[in-house]
Amino acid sequence: MDIPYTVEARPDTGLYNAKVGIWLFLASEVMLFGALFSTYILLRVGAPEGFWPHGWLNIPVGTVNTLVLITSSITTVMAWASLKMNQFGRFKFFHACTLCLALTFVGIKSYEYHDKFMHYEITLKDGRIADGHLVKRTADQVVISGHYVEDRKELFDLRAGGPPHEHTEITIPQAQIKKMENYGPWHTTYLAIYFTLTGLHALHVIGGAIVIGFLWGPGSKLWKTDPDRFTNRIEISGLFWHFVDLVWIFLFPVLYLL
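Structure (tokenized):
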């Protein structure tokens, strides 16, 4: 038995089944990310004055990742358009580009995560705070590339005026360390919501990349038997991919620039 409305539009909605389904799914996704963005706003408004981080993220790296994702949105449209023009070879090229760009985005985001997990704030017993990236850690000492501050508040607004801190290699005996914590999601409220938002988004990118890879590879066999249905599948995956891109367009300025 054939499933109706896989290619032709339904009379009640004017859309084929998969398109109705993806729009309903994306509506639930809007509610999910909307709740998280609302949480971010409430946490930021409720933070004590001077204790909401600024300048903690690498803007040039975030900008490059934004361009990567925008370009992938273009290539996925070109892949779909190629099928509409019956150019399967061009579709394979553009869809491969989309997949490579998706993996590039995940790779850059992994680099940013690694940077945060290697960044430590070390409180010493004499009250000073050492902040920097871990170079080496042994049973007797910790070596970081960073600087000392007297007040923890100095670490929060890195865009504030004043000369930048000079980073040098600092060796700290373990006996002098009162507390040592990296910049993971447990470090501050800001990092908790940062890892939640970007981590969930990265999972969407990975999920979309898996679907794109399947449609580029074994799933593309459908083109030979039912090209219209295969073209619709590419359109549906493209709508999801555009949503993923749109979410990042909001995440980038909220987390990196504001």
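Residues 120-182 form a domain with the SH3 type barrels. fold (CATH 2.30.30). The radius of gyration is 24 Å.
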